[in-house]
Predict the 3D structure of the following.
Amino acid sequence: MPDRPITLAVIIGAHGITGEVRLKLFGSGLDGVKAHKTFNNGALTLKTLRPQKDLGIAWFAEITDRNAAEAARGTELTVPRSALPPLGEDEYYHADMVGLPVVSDAGEPLGTVRAIEDFGAGDLLDIATPDGKAFMAPVAAADIGEDRIVIDPVWAE
């Protein structure tokens, strides 16, 4: 996979007056963010991180007051794809599946993965079809390859 930036969290607002920020966490949550010290190609240096309900409260060396924290709202915290831990067999990163073509078991093009969703019962592929429509299929029913995903066409009906 190319060494593209992978988003681990996003700053959603200020926390207090000292420059701490609230983070919406993705992927591995707090542990995934804690595993890294710098983000956005070194633009942000993590000093502290602690949990608060389903969020993280972080302090970055470069964000020194509430005004700077408010200005950072919406900033995605990214790391290079190569900085993520290696995967085991039958494991995948959602970011690696987004954008992959989806085909039937006969090779017929069905669409492109635009997102991975989880509504509580397991991961679902959100697939955009060539005609502008969309459908979902369970990741568990897919054969995930490096350059495409194969599913039973019954999911596209």
Remarks:
- The helical segments are 29-34, 66-71, 94-97.
